[in-house]
Design brief:
This protein is mostly beta strands. It contains no helices and nine strands.
Amino acid sequence: LYVVVKDAAGNVSTAVKIAVAAYVSPDTTAPVVTFNDTTRTEINTLTLHDALPNSGKYYTAVVEKDAAAPTIDTTGAGTDCTTEEVTASVALTAGDKDVYVVVKDAAGNVSTAVKIAVAAFEGP
């Protein structure tokens, strides 16, 4: 893009080139979260197998089994996620729980919450 200025007397400035980048539409696609398997390895530890997208941060919320789905706050730091197995240390207590997980990508898109029914921990 070139810009010139013409004054009231008819004088015209030298053309100035202004570089304009091509429009790139913003990323509005939310990440997709799926779980192949989960393992409760201790009372307070849940392992997510082959579960999360390869970038972004994951956030969790825990409720009692069959309680209403919570609102998950994604304004905090979150935890880095990869497509590999992720061991999520979530605030699990004794008994059956429902764990909800969302992923927020670098563009700020948040996945739909996925519910994971977690049975009570039974030690070895």
